[in-house]
TrEMBL record:
Sequence ranges assigned to domain 3-hydroxyacyl-CoA dehydrogenase C-terminal in this UniProt record: 188-284, 494-590
Pathway, per record: Lipid metabolism; butanoate metabolism
Sequence ranges assigned to domain 3-hydroxyacyl-CoA dehydrogenase NAD binding in this UniProt record: 7-185, 314-491
Organism: Streptomyces drozdowiczii
Keywords per UniProt: Oxidoreductase
Transmembrane segments annotated in the record for this chain: none
Record's protein name: 3-hydroxybutyryl-CoA dehydrogenase
SUPFAM superfamilies the record matches: 6-phosphogluconate dehydrogenase C-terminal domain-like (SSF48179), NAD(P)-binding Rossmann-fold domains (SSF51735)
Presence of the UniProt keyword Oxidoreductase in the record: yes
Top-level division of the source organism's lineage: Bacteria
Family: Belongs to the 3-hydroxyacyl-CoA dehydrogenase family.
UniProt cross-references to Pfam families, sorted A to Z: 3HCDH (PF00725), 3HCDH_N (PF02737)
Amino acid sequence: MDTPLSTIAVVGLGTMGTGIAEVLARSGREVIGIDTDEAAARRAVASLAASTARAVERGRITEEERRDALSRFRTFSDLQAAADAELVIEVVPESYEIKQQVFRELDAIVSPATILATGTNALSVTRLAAESQRPERVLGLHFFNPAPAMKLVEVVSSVLTAPPAVQAVTELARLLGKEPVAIGDRPGFVADGLLFGYLNQAAAMYEANYATREDIDAAMKLGCGLPMGPLALLDLIGIDTARTVLEAMYSSSHDRLHAPAPILGQLASAGLTGRKAGRGFYTYAEPGSQSVVPDALTPAPRGAEAAGRPVRSVGVAGSGTMASGIAEVFAKAGYDVVLAARGQEKADLAKARIAKSLDRSVAKGRLSERARDEALGRIAAAASLDAFAEVDLAVEAVAEDLVVKQELFATLDKVCRPGAVLATTTSSLPVVAIARATGRPEDVVGMHFFNPAPAMKLVEVVRTVLTADDVRATVHEVCHAVRKHPVDCGDRAGFIVNALLFPYLNNAIKMVEEHYASLDDIDAAMKLGGGYPMGPFELLDVVGLDVSLAIEKVLHNEFRDPGLAPAPLLEHLVAAGCLGRKTGRGFREYARR
């Protein structure tokens, strides 16, 4: 069937429906907007007028194009207005009863050739199609908010959907300038199926008082490059909406990771549904506002906490990329640095790596030659940890092996002066087990930098049950001095970032195992629909599949949740030596250098 789809009805003129209507009208389609609430229809017209006016001001469209778009958008309060539509897109509330009623009424109104699309992201397209008199013409057409800006459109087929209908709406999506991804019917589809599990875990992490809302959000923005933190995003989406999506996902998957965190139900029941209510995880200036205002949970201003210990010199143990990066960070911030490795040759090579990094910064205009020379002059390369005798802060960045780290900390305990702070950069091991290798566990703290350390702003500050208050304060002061953003968290597997990131990556692998979607479609969905800088499979290949598997195993062992068990496909690839970019093959193949 070659349907031009030139006349399209949009049923439901809330935020999403209005956005879809705008996209369609600006593309030259005749748009019939339908909402039983006449106030909603008026708001939709006003919204389109305002957004197109802004587009004219920014030079994106002409005034004539604006007038044409506005003339193509007409609003009605009765579904009968959809009689001549070739495609109807419903975006009414996420309720089977409401949506099925809309489809039943449309069956009696529209032409037999009309395609009926649901904008649901939580309900079964198959179940909605089965209630229609024309199930072969029913499919899912899931835009992302804000529809005019977001490129992704998920085209969802049920087992009843006719291929020509899918082809017609897929071609329409391309003509609208969108990136259509064809997928099957399951709650959440690809993007929301991965996104909402991650959001749910973040809510549960906050509910457990593991970290503050501000630290959870900052960790995911700075550690993963996401445009919004998960709790702020839940407020934007609507906590009631998120809970509805998760309920639908859990009813299908029975995965405990999809069981809505109790706090979501509590907030929704209290009417604290996020931005639209003026309060959710955060408090806003007014309902609908994006301006966060202080409330009883807002952290005290910096400086109101205990003072830390003075730090003038820093020891960095290790000779790899992370150790070199951390030493560079401290040296550029004006600290005297002792870089110790197992042997002088390794220490000298690590310092040479830092020199090359500083040279690149000079070449890019980020650093002056004088600043480079001064930073390099502050670094002393040493052949053993004995050189740490007078440092105020010792940071280890050696192999991620508990025995290796414990032996190193036992040595630091003997070498470092009393009162020196001892920090581990572990990303997956229990900090307290490392601290107990010393006779001063109160001086030991986790200081988890992210790679590459000179570029990444985040440091997870991991406090054990034995860490002294002034040790935590010291690390915070040092982080601010080197222009890093510290976030506090307790001593448990994955801390904040890895505990939220790797289950999401694992679930993406499971989607491929189940043949639900391809690597390319999943990566595209998360970049275009979720704002992720990299798709999950791109990221897995960069991190290394062996590293990813090790972290997944640590998380599963700590929390014992079946949903955290590493995906078999990941284990098989690691067993085959396909570890990602570093071996030339992981989930994808790479050209050998």
